[in-house]
Structure formats: structure tokens, C-alpha cells
Amino acid sequence: MQTLIEHSATYYDEVFAPLDRDHHLERIGGGFETEVYCTDDKRYVVKLKSDLGGDLDAARACIRRIRDTAEQFTRCLGEAHSIPNTYILARDGVGRVQGLVIQPFIRHAHPLGEVDLTTLGPDEREHVAAQLSEIVWRSLAFYRSSGYMPDLYGMISTGHDERARRSRPHTLPRHLWDFVMRRNILRSCNLLLTNSPECRVVLVDYDLVRWNVLIRRIYFAVRWVLGWRDQLLIRRMRRTGVRKGEQ
Ligand SMILES: Nc1ncnc2c1ncn2[C@@H]1O[C@H](COP(=O)(O)OP(=O)(O)O)[C@@H](O)[C@H]1O
Ligand SMILES: [Mg+2]
């Protein structure tokens, strides 16, 4: 049951009670699984996966899994490219316990895929390319030791309805095509690039796909190959600022 009530760009949900006096938070975005809100003082983002709500034990087990994965991905990428995650369990308006993930709000930053890298100066572009290359090397090394890796790409959605539409089986071929041909690290929504002069690349999405073991293995093997392709794209971006085919 949907408990969010749209009120211009802010949403009401009792699950926000530990964070906000009137239980309204502004929605700033959403990806494939998560609704992303920010606190009134714009210091933190609050991430809610309402699909995962349940009783206290289920919610606690779920948030522990999310925390363990985030800790591993933070170790994988290192402090320079990751942010702290804090977790809260709270009850929503229909009595389900939900896990909330709190992160610092990375302001003055954009998802990498929205940045025109040709507008960066040569030193900034070099700095961004070096960070991206390190992130991919670290992810590939992590895959060799664990069999999985952080999602360096990500997807954007307008909300619950769009996610439900995308999950229908007949959309699968298009997703596979998009995944292999269109998504790459330079189009990432999970990596944010802070504005000049800092130009720091930071991962904001620490989720692990929730698929069965076999599909997950195939998915990460493909991602491993795409990681090598990403290294080639980064090398090209380092020289020209653009992706192949976009000149
Ligand atoms: N800490 C953050 N600071 C600023 N923007 C964020 C932060 N976390 C997420 N976002 C924005 O919200 C979008 C979706 O967040 P994400 O955690 O990737 O959701 P999902 O798990 O659904 O993919 C990101 O692409 C980014 O634009
Ligand atoms: Mg994401």
C-alpha cells in the first residue's frame, strides 16, 4: 500500500518521524529501487525502499544486509570515493517497519552522466579520468575476490509507477540492450561529480542486486567485461573529453 501523499515536491510519510517534525520531506530523486528525499536543512539525504518494509525482524535483517554490503563497497572504493551511510528503522503509517538510509547530501554535484566533460579544463579532466580509472580497477579487483562489485551505472526513475512498468517481463529485451549498449561509467547516475575545482567522484548507491544466484553470476560476469570496456572509454575521455560516437 502506498503511504506517500504528494504535496508539491514534498511528501508526507510517518516513517520520516525520527527525522522531521511534520513528517514531510522533499523528494530529490529516485533510482531503480529507492526514493531519495532530503532533510529541510539540506544536509542529509534519506533513502527509502518501501518495497522492503515488513515486521521488525524482517526489517532489521534487511537493513543489516544493506549495511554489510555498503561497508564492503566502501572498503572496495576507499574513503575518497565513498560516503558514510547511517541506518534507522522506523514505522510507517500502515504499521510496517522500514529501513531508512541516511547519507550526507552531496551538494554542488551532478550525476556523472549529466556532466558535459568537454567543459572541464585539461587538468580537471585528467583528475576525473584518474579517479574513474581507479574506481573501475578497484571494482574489478573486488569482483575477483568476492564475485560481485558495486553498481557504477544505475538508473533513474520518476517513482514507483515507472519502476513497476519497467519490471514487466516484456521490457526485458530492451533493458538488456540498454544495459550492454547504452549504459557505461561515463553515463553513470550512481557516481556524482562535485563541481570544479574539487571534481571529486563519489559513489552514492551501495545496493547489491537482489536476484537469484545464477542470474547474479551472469550479471556480474557481464559487468566485469563492461568494466574493461569502461577503462577504454575513460582512456578516450582523458584525451578528448567525449565518449566514442558522440563527437
Ligand atoms: N547522497 C546524495 N547526495 C546527493 N544526491 C544523491 C545522493 N544519493 C542519491 N542522490 C541522487 O538520487 C539518485 C538516486 O539515488 P540512488 O541511491 O542511486 O537510488 P537507487 O538505489 O534507486 O538507484 C542519484 O542518481 C542521485 O542523483
Ligand atoms: Mg542508483
Task: Explain this structure.
A hairpin with a 5-residue loop joins strand 4 and strand 5 (44-48). The chain has two domains: 7-104, Phosphorylase Kinase, domain 1; 109-240, no CATH class. The strands form two sheets. Strands 1-2-3-4-5-7-6 form a seven-stranded antiparallel β-sheet. It is α+β, with helices and mostly antiparallel strands and 247 residues long. The protein has five helices and ten strands. The relative contact order is 0.15. Mean pLDDT is 88; it is low at 1-8. The site of adenosine-5'-diphosphate has 19 residues, from strand 3 and strand 5. Magnesium ion binds next to loops.
- Runs with pLDDT <50, length 5+? 1-8
Mean pLDDT equals 88
Number of helices: 5
Main sheet makeup: 7 strands, antiparallel
Shape: globular
- End-to-end Cα distance, whole Å, is 47 Å
Short description:
This protein has 247 residues and is an alpha+beta fold. The chain has helices at residues 56-77, 122-146, 160-166, 172-182, 213-240, and strands at residues 5-7, 10-12, 24-30, 35-38, 44-48, 86-91, 97-104, 109-111, 191-194, 201-203. It is 38% helix and 19% strand.
